[in-house]
Design goal:
Layout (H helix, E strand, L loop, with lengths): L51 H7 L14 E4 H7 L4 E3 L1 H6 L10 E4 L8 E4 L2 E2 L1 H9 L3 E3 L8
Parallel strand pairs: 1-3, 2-4, 3-5, 4-6
Amino acid sequence: MLNLHNLKSAKGSRKKSKRVGRGGKRGAYSGRGMKGQKARSGGKKGLKLKGLKKMIQSIPKKRGFKSMYPKPEIVNVKQLDIKFKDNDKITPEILLKNKLVSKIKNGVKILGDGELKKKLIIENCAVSKSAQEKIEKAGGRIENQKSKIKI
């Protein structure tokens, strides 16, 4: 008759745990090395971020800081005064054609370094406050100003 006192688990379903440090194949230090906190019983704490230190060490470290935000190409007012004539329209494409900028993907910003004596119309460019004052003082105007570009 089958009762609770004579129930047995199936053969091979239960595995005996390895008893380490009692002679036999794992003698002496029992795979724990010599001494130290990790060699003692109950001394294997604080290894939560496994592999993180190695990962951090493998990343190359470089000096300085590289911003993740793309920077616009910069053109000064004095360059515009030299390259353009009165009443010329200035756009990023025209600046690229005249080789004042190398790329226009990240936008173009006009800064106020130098003097401006010509009346210019500026479109689709970011303009600094000092450059805006000089352009308006010379009689020019700014249309469709891109204001979100920061240096």
